[in-house]
Each structure stands twice: as C-alpha cells, then as structure tokens.
Amino acid sequence: MIPSFAIALILAIAFDVHAAPSPHSSAGQTMHLTRRSPDRTPDEWAAWAQAQKESLRTKYGAAPSVARRGSGTNLIVNQNSDSAYYGSIAVGTPPVAFNVILDTGSSDLWIADRRCVTGCDGVAKFDSSQSSTFTNLTTSFSIKYGSGAAAGSLGQDVVQMAGFSVANQKFGVCDEVSSNLLYSPVSGLMGLAFSTISSSRSTPFWEALVQNGAWDSPVMSFQLTRYIGENNANTLEPGGTFTMGFVNQSLYTGDIDFQDIPANQESYWLLPLTGLTVGNSAVALPTASSNLAAIDTGTTLVGGPSAIVSALYAQIPGAVAGTGNYQDYYIYPCDTSVNVSMSFGGKSWSISPQDFKLTPLTQTQCLGAIFNLDISGTGSPAWIVGDTFLKNVYSVFRYNPPSVGFAELSDTAKAMSNLRGTVPSPTLGAVSAEVTANGGNTVSSTTNSAGRSINHWAPLRLIPMALSIAFASSFVLVYL
Ligand SMILES: *[C@@H]1O[C@H](CO)[C@@H](O)[C@H](O)[C@H]1NC(C)=O
Ligand SMILES: *[C@@H]1O[C@H](CO)[C@@H](O)[C@H](O)[C@H]1NC(C)=O
Ligand SMILES: *[C@@H]1O[C@H](CO)[C@@H](O)[C@H](O)[C@H]1NC(C)=O
Fold first, then answer.
1. Going by CA atoms, what residue is nearest to atom 14 of ligand 3?
2. What is the mean pLDDT of residues 18-24?
3. Bridge partners of 139?
4. Does residue 326 sit in helix, strand or coil?
5. What are the tens digits of pLDDT across the range 186-232?
6. Is the distance from the beta carbon of residue 354 to the nearest atom of ligand 3 less than 6 Å?
7. How many CB atoms lie within 10 A of CB 130?
8. What distance in Å separates the CA atoms of residue 381 and residue 404, rounded to the nearest whole number?
9. Which residue lies with its CA nearest to atom 3 of ligand 2?
C-alpha cells in the first residue's frame, strides 16, 4: 500500500548510538582508565563512558540494547487467493499478537483500537490499557490509501516480530477505519518502506532494527505463494516467507539481481521500469528517470500509466478496454496465454499467465491484472508493482546500499504454491535482538537530504466497487 498523502520529510539520519565496541571491561582496564590524566579527548571520554556502562551492565546483568545481531523469519498468510499477505507481530507487555499486512509501499505501523466500531468487525483490537509499557503520545494519527483511510492516535510500545523487538516503537492506534480496509483476521498494517514517507514521522520498525545494527545483513525478503485460479482455495492459505536480517538460500536459485534505488530517492522502494514486453513484443517506455516503479507487497495488482498499459493490451489480440465498472481495466480472451515480462535495469522477470489472468468475467472473457493508474507529481512512481509480479520472484529489500533485488524462486519455494497446507499461526520467535528506536525523526522540512522536494500524493481513485463483486470470493487491494 502506498499512502495517498505521503508527508515529505527529510531522510532520517541514523545517529550511531553505539560507540566502537568496548572491550569487555576488566578491573585492570578500569584501573587503567581511572589512572589516566583527565585531559581526555571527547572520543576517549566516550570510550570511558561506554566502558563504565558495560561494566555496570555486566555487574547487574542487564541486557545490552542490542543483545546480538540476528535474523528472523515470519511465516505469512495468503488471504483471498493472493489478494493480500499478512504476518504476525506482538505488541505491549504482556505481548499480544496481531496480524498485519506486510507492506513495502508505506512506512507506518498501525493497528485497530479497542474503541474502533466501524471497519473493525471481527478483527482483534489493541487494548492499550492492558499494556504496562504503552505510552499515549497524545498526537493524532491518520493515513490514507487508495482503498481507504485509518485514523486515531499515536502511541508507543514494545513491538516484536520474527525474533526482533523494538522497545519504543511508535504506531497508530486507530479507532476510525474505513470499510473494506481491514479483512478479518487482519488488525492493521506494518509499513516496510523508508521513514521519509512515514505519515506519523516515526522510524519504521524495520528501519529501527537495521539502523541499530540488529540484523546480520541489512536485508529483508519475501517469497509469496500463488493460489489465484485455484478453485478450491481457502480464504486463508499459507502465504510464504518474510525474512529480516538474512535471505533464505533455500527459497531461490542463482544470484540475486540487485538494482539500486535512484540516488537520494529512498522513500518507496523505487526502481526504474526499463523494459516491458508482452509475448515477443516490446512496449515503448519513457526514460528510466520518469518511469519509476514502487515495488509494493501491499498492493494486489500492477498499475501503470494508461498510455503504456493500453499499448501493452494492444499487443494482445482481442483485448479491449473495460467500461463502466471495469473502467481502467482490460478484458481479453481467456484462452490467450499472456506472458508479460518486466525489467528494472537488469534481468527481465516474467509474470506467469496464471497471475495475469485475474478472473474470468464470462466463459470467454477474462480480466487482466495490469490496469491503468495515472499518478501525477514529480518524484512519484509511475508504476505500482504489486503481488501479481512479486509472486513470480524472490524479492529482497536491501537497506544498504539501498536497492531491490530479485532472484528466481527455487523449486522448494515454487512447491509452496497451491499446496493447501496448514495456515501458519503467529510466528513471533524468541527475541534475539532488541533495540531502542532513535528519538524520532529529526525532521521538519519538506525536502529530503538531497534538497529535492517530494510531492504530496494526490488522492487516487479507488478500485471500482463492482470489481469486488466480480471477484466473488476474492478482493483486490490497491492501496496507494
Ligand atoms: C490517547 O489519548 C487521547 C486523548 O489525548 C485519546 O483520545 C486516545 O483515545 C488515546 N489513545 C489510546 C490508544 O489510548
Ligand atoms: C529456509 O527455508 C526453508 C524452506 O522453507 C526452511 O525449511 C528453512 O528452515 C529456512 N531457513 C531458515 C534459516 O529460516
Ligand atoms: C515468457 O517469456 C519469457 C521471455 O520473455 C520466457 O523466458 C518465458 O519462458 C515465457 N513464459 C511462458 C510461460 O511462456
């Protein structure tokens, strides 16, 4: 999902909160320090202060803020035949588990408040009065997506996921949620893009971890399962794997083809769309810099500029633009196997014909999964590349250097699709690394670190209502 009103913020600078690793303090070292002449340099004072702190920690047995580096896995759930993918977090003391959409297209965490009366039917709600570590920041919180909006207040508490913990994570506690935004058992959303586009101006959970060195490797990754077109698929099916701090080599083969995010554009996970083919025909594209794509696990389909999307469908014999309820979508003959490939500066990656075929409308007419989405504003992505594409690759989101990588799914990963396995229960893992988030973003200006202003998003059109009806048991989430 991508918020409609991404607040322009300067890139949060991660202050290095940890001094150089201080040697385990022995009495001898302490004596050595205390005997030194007092005219220390600031660095020496800092080292001394760290050594004092470490010796007290050792003495009293308190855990350091980063226990050790680590890596973790969250088994995710595929909801409504590839419409959405959610994982599990735990919030508060004692910890309470919640399911949240894992969304690389936005940067805020929020969950439904116990006071929520609309849009929260049947979902687990957060009761802040039951958490001894909750702090009400008494600031309002709101975020808008293409599919709806959520609003409430901003709070702070311990948040855990996949064996990681952030002691003072800021998040929205939402009592107003528009209908069709949360589908039970999902209670909220975990934004996995950069802090620059956080509506609450908070450091996202993942960024707090990676900035504080909690991860073995500065990456997170997704392997998403496919159930679309599977007639007997359940509403909830195993969704694949989300990892933090490592990539799981059992889930891909060959190399990960990393492509850098354009310089100083860490906001969404942006890559230029440099190649688009349908069958053997290339579709003409504008220059890379004006053709950025947000790689977005929180959006179901793939949306792009109508001029280019219509040129793509023009290559499919018998395809026509939809009208009425299907405006901005395209209808094509179901017996055509459509093979669309996309490249982002490197290798070309195919969307399987099965993923392209969103749903049959009649016996012979099918709806395509790539639709018109005209987003205006410089610096805005022209494309939203969602799960229709991401199911076909192992995707890696790398903090440093900022880049997105794709790799071929392994046979092990492919075998997890259409498997009809057991839906994972919340997988939180034992906490191996705990961090304290930096004291919020030191931001107030509307430019990023490079001085380039980021435009606010224009509100985007919602998915035509009738589409959710057409999909019978499935729904499409296009959160922009
Ligand atoms: C936080 O405090 C505000 C009043 O300042 C209140 O409206 C809101 O419901 C509180 N939020 C939570 C989660 O307790
Ligand atoms: C990697 O994925 C495989 C296949 O799902 C799984 O069996 C294995 O436990 C995973 N490894 C780690 C370290 O999570
Ligand atoms: C789709 O096209 C690519 C080349 O563009 C090819 O490698 C791949 O095998 C094709 N897939 C199908 C299902 O036809």
1. 339
2. 30
3. 154
4. helix
5. 999 999 999 999 999 999 999 999 999 999 999 999 999 999 988 88
6. no
7. 12
8. 15
9. 250
Q: How many angstroms is it from 318 CA to the middle of ligand 3?
A: 21
Residues carrying an active site annotation: 103, 296
Q: Which domains does the chain have, with CATH numbers?
A: 28-250+414-456 (2.40.70.10), 264-408 (2.40.70.10)
Residue among 73, 217, 416 to mutate when testing ligand 2 (max atoms within 8 A of CB): 73
pLDDT for residue 18 is more than 50: no
Residues 466 and 474: their CA atoms lie apart, in Å, by: 12
Rounded mean pLDDT, 35-54: 46
Is there an atom of ligand 2 within 6 Å of 412 CB? yes
Q: What is the pTM of this model?
A: 0.82
Beta bridge partners of 272: 292
* CA of 275, nearest ligand number: 3
Two tokens at 214? 């909690």
User: Rounded to a whole number, what is the largest CA-CA distance in the chain?
Assistant: 87
**pLDDT value of residue 58:** 38
Pick the more confident residue, 96 or 4: 96
365 ligand 3 Cβ < 6 A: no
The residue type at 396: V
The answer to whether the CB of 222 falls within 8 A of the CB of 176 is: no
Alpha-carbon 131 to chain mean position: 26
